[in-house]
Design goal:
Length: about 100
């Protein structure tokens, strides 16, 4: 049973960012400080990479700990509610990561 109402849970989940996460911003600041220029979230490339370095024909994917279930990461915790659904979702993300 969920500890939040359906509306509260929906609100909480809507606040989870898919773009401009802390990890992405750190990587972008580092790249910029090194003189590298980039594009963000190219819809024309497969997998929709987070950062594209056109000059070097390179893409960077920044996978968040929760959505991609990194092994041994202290930030990855399986939710206590709908555990089977979440594990299925995270396993699909892992498979998609392997394909790229």
């Amino acid at each position: 049973m969920d500890v939040h109402s359906k509306e509260t849970r929906s609100f909480n989940m809507s606040r989870i960012k898919g773009k401009d996460t802390k990890a992405e911003i750190l990587v972008r600041k580092y790249l910029f400080s090194q003189g590298l220029r980039y594009r963000l979230y190219s819809k024309t490339l497969p997998g929709r990479p987070d950062i594209v370095l056109p000059k070097y024909r390179t893409v960077i994917f920044i996978h968040g700990c929760f959505w991609h279930g990194h092994e041994g990461c202290r930030y990855f915790v399986v939710p206590k509610t709908r555990t089977e659904w979440w594990l299925n979702k995270i396993n699909i993300n892992r498979e998609n990561d392997r394909k790229l």
